[in-house]
Amino acid sequence: MSRLLDDRVFNKETLLDSTVNLVPFGILLFFFLLFAVATPQGWRDGSLMSIYMWTIMISMIWGLLHLTYATAKRI
């Protein structure tokens, strides 16, 4: 039974170490929602700047989640 607990990726110690990334994730999520609700130029034009901004925000959120998982797996 103890071997099963050792093989899990997210055990108690790993979750405690990974909670450090909750603060940057919360900040990214706040700006993601803020940009989704209050876009200064609106959605009708579909400007290239909006596409760049969405791409940057989504890639940062994905990158942080991927980095958190990869470090938790190695801890």
List the helices and strands and how they pair.
Blueprint lengths: L1 H6 L4 H7 L3 H16 L10 H27 L1
Helix pairs in contact: 2-4, 3-4
Q: Can you give me a brief rundown of this structure?
A:
The chain has 75 residues and is mainly α.
Can you characterise this structure?
The protein is mainly α and 75 residues long. 75% of the residues lie in helices and 0% in strands. The protein is built from four helices and no strands. The protein has helices spanning 2-7, 12-18, 22-37, 48-74. α3 packs antiparallel against α4 (48-74). The radius of gyration is 17 Å and the shape is elongated. The relative contact order is 0.16.
Helix-strand makeup class: mainly alpha
Secondary structure tally, helices:
4
| Approximate helicity band | over 70%
Largest sheet: none
The parts where pLDDT drops under 50 for at least 5 residues are none
User: Which overall shape is indicated by the principal axes computed on the Cα atoms?
Assistant: elongated
Q: Kindly report how far apart the N and C termini lie.
A: 20 Å
Rg is 17 Å
Strand residue percentage: under 5%
Number of strands: 0
Q: Mean pLDDT, rounded to whole units?
A: 77
Report the order of strands and helices.
HHHH
What descriptive keywords fit this protein?
mainly alpha, 4 helices, about 80 residues, single chain
